[in-house]
Amino acid sequence: MRELVTYHLVSLDGVAEEPGNWVFDVDEEVFAHLGAVIARQDTVLLGRGTYDYWAGYWPGSDVEPFATFINGTPKHVVTSRPLAPPWANSVVVDRSVVEHVRALKQGEGGDIGVHGSITLTRSLLRAGLVDELRLVVAPTIAGTGRRLFDDGELRRLDLIAVSGTRSGALLLAYRTRAGGGGQSE
User: Fold this and answer.
1) Domain region containing 32
2) Residue 102: inside a domain
3) For a surface tag, which of 57, 113, 118, 139 has the fewest beta carbons within 10 Å of its beta carbon?
């Protein structure tokens, strides 16, 4: 069974929106970490807001390792509207996202990635479909912006990897627990 892995840049105070506004130093360790995560992924899920934002940037970008990956990988976009502008390898998720993700996870292939999409990540966590969270915690307090975890729901996670970079970022990996809540396993 395929795994669903989310990847987010977050500030120390949990903000995940517009990391370009508060991520100031990115070193080679962060890019290597991203490269290792996306090397296992062959499908991406995007929310509509992230699609709209990225479709105007990534097709012409040479920022690696992500540009080649995101432009060449099948992108499943959760939306009720046609995709405009068009972006290669993008398809509309035209049914329940929960059903769609369950079907993807049952298929053959590598990991399924979620990048950027805060609302989509939250809904997949609530549905118990996220297997692993990959977080890059920037040494910044953003102050304002949407937070990745802002629904007040208790979730227990298991730390599976942690390291720091020269620029002060923390690279964290967590596995979700079945049930996700505060119950003992």
Assistant:
1) 4-176
2) yes
3) 57
